[in-house]
Amino acid sequence: MNGMRTKIRKTWYRVKRDFLTTQNVVMIVAIMLGLNWTWSAISTMHRNYDLQRRIESMRREEVILDLETQALEHEAAFYQSREFQELAARERLGLANPGERVLLLPPNSEEATNRHSVVDMSESEGESNLYQWMTFLFGGSARN
């Protein structure tokens, strides 16, 4: 047991003599202060970045709200205008200005409403996609 204590004392003496010098202690303190300063600077920059993003977001929201407010003000002014009142009276009461005539058309037939929605794919049926691309890229008609 005495031999073990002696070894520990010798090791502790060497550590104190070789590593715990004033110069090394000052260096360790300087490194710790530098790391602390760096960490606080990074955390401050991160916080500032987050705050700046929030400010920009709020500014965008403010601009959007201002635009919506202006649009609503213009809409309210339009609803109070003489033109809107005239249009509303014409629509609801069926009134017309002198000299105007109303043209009433019958509703469209089903054939007329569906004519443009049907796509004719009969030309390209039976041909492979590759052949159609080759024809498109190098010219010629799909039937040749």
State the share of residues found in helices, binned by percent. Answer: over 70%
**Low-confidence parts, pLDDT < 50 over ≥5 residues?**
none
- Count of helical regions: 5
Order of secondary-structure elements: HHHHH
Report on the architecture of this protein.
The protein is an all-alpha fold. It contains five helices and no strands. The protein has helices at residues 2-18, 22-80, 82-93, 110-114, 129-138. The protein is elongated, with a radius of gyration of 43 Å. The N and C termini lie far apart (105 Å).
In a few lines, what is going on in this structure?
The protein has 144 residues and is mainly alpha-helical. Helices cover 72% and strands 0% of the residues. The model has no long low-confidence stretch (mean pLDDT 85).
Features:
0% strand; elongated; 5 helices; 144 residues
Write the layout of secondary structure elements.
Blueprint: H1 2-18, H2 22-80, H3 82-93, H4 110-114, H5 129-138
